[in-house]
Amino acid sequence: MLYDFYDDKKEKKLLSPKLDVVFQVLFGEVGSEEITKDFLEAILNEKITKIDLSRNPILRRMSINDKMGILDVIIEIDNKEYCNIEMQMSDKDDLIRRILYYWAKTYSRGIQKGEFYEELKRTISVIITDFEIKGLEELEYCTKWKIIEEKERKIILTDVMEIVIIELPKIYKKRNKKDKLLEWTYFLDNPKSEEVEEIMKENEGIKKANEKLEEISDDEIMQRIAEWKADGIRLEKGRQARFERKIKELEEEKAREIKEGRERGIAEGREKGILEGIAEGREKGILEGRAEGIEEGRKEGIKQGKKEEIIKIVKSLQKEGSDINFIMKITGLTKEEIESMQKL
């Protein structure tokens, strides 16, 4: 339904100026020059003598089935500059490249085939988003961009290119009613807020913009177009949300598979390591045991061989009739050891 894009449900229904079709009519329709000039002066922070809105197409179409295309506002400033303003409610892929592309298209309008490049005019692209742009989280709600030399960062290559980015979700982080642009962004975000009611008491441009917004909101054709666009935005956001959920599910599944694979690998590695350790230990034990057995056998063999040799000597001495005391002195054996050998 359309009501999500009304700023007040209890009182008179008011279409949201953040909706691109409403924004385009509010600031791009012939007859809105005074409102748009005031808004543009706040954005550029410079005085503007005259603007021309005649380059915009017919904005209030008779059929909601008409192809809307890119809903931006083309402004010619003082017959020497171009400005392109676009309201974007849904986050788009490659948004920055999109901004550069539409700047280039606007810039190229300033010259026809066969004309000199000096005919090209300074071109400004303004993008107003209803979301924070990834990568710009630490910057102010309004940032201005030009081509600058990278190393010294002192020289701007050219003054014909300027891009202004305004992120509406950031505006409440900076409270300063003396900032005219901030007052305009409060109006864009919620024209029926008490804050905007106070601002309109002193800001004539925003007061006139609000009157124009009320007139747009009373237009039945604009109501139908706005509802159609609102439904499209909701569907787009729904698709984007589903896509993001699917991506998140896939990432979680991948992370789960990696975790399970790691745990399985650790378990298998531990089991394999234990088995290999046992086998290695067994083999090492056998080798060490064999070596120790051989050494012990060798020692025992030597010992046994010496014993047999001594027995032979003792028996030989006894056979020759040697005295036992002599034999004890020669062999180092005791009397009992010599007598026991006589029985072997």
Describe what you observe in this structure:
The structure is a single chain. By secondary structure, the protein is an alpha/beta fold. The chain has two domains: 2-218, no CATH class; 253-341. The chain is built from nine helices and six strands, in the order H-H-E-E-E-H-E-E-E-H-H-H-H-H-H. The chain has helices at residues 20-28, 33-44, 95-108, 180-189, 194-199, 204-217, 220-319, 324-331, 335-341; strands at 51-52, 72-77, 81-88, 122-129, 142-145, 161-167. It has a six-stranded mixed sheet, with helices on both faces. A hairpin with a 3-residue loop joins strand 2 (72-77) and strand 3 (81-88). Helix 2 (33-44) crosses helix 6 (204-217). The protein is rod-shaped, with a radius of gyration of 47 Å. Mean pLDDT is 80; it is low at 6-10 and 62-70.
Task: Describe what is shown at a glance.
The chain is 52% helix and 10% strand.
Q: Which helices and strands occur, and which strands form pairs?
A:
Elements: H1 20-28, H2 33-44, E1 51-52, E2 72-77, E3 81-88, H3 95-108, E4 122-129, E5 142-145, E6 161-167, H4 180-189, H5 194-199, H6 204-217, H7 220-319, H8 324-331, H9 335-341
Parallel strand pairs: 3-4, 4-6
Antiparallel strand pairs: 1-2, 2-3, 5-6
Helix pairs in contact: 2-6
